[in-house]
Amino acid sequence: MTERALVLGGGGITGIAWELGLLAGLAERGVVLSGAGLIIGTSAGSVVGAQIATGVDVEERYTAQLAPPDGEVVARFGRATMVRLGLAMIGPAMIGRGDARRVRSRIGSIALRTRTVPESERIAVIARRLPVREWPERALRVTAVDAHTGEFVVLDRDSGVSLVEAVAASCAVPGVWPPVTAGGRRFIDGGMRSTANADLAGGSARVVVLAPVTRGIGPLTGVAPQVAGLRAAGARVALVSPDEAAVRAIGRNVLDPTRRAAAARAGRVQAAAVADEVTAVWED
Question: In terms of pTM, does the model score above 0.90?
Answer without folding.
Answer: yes
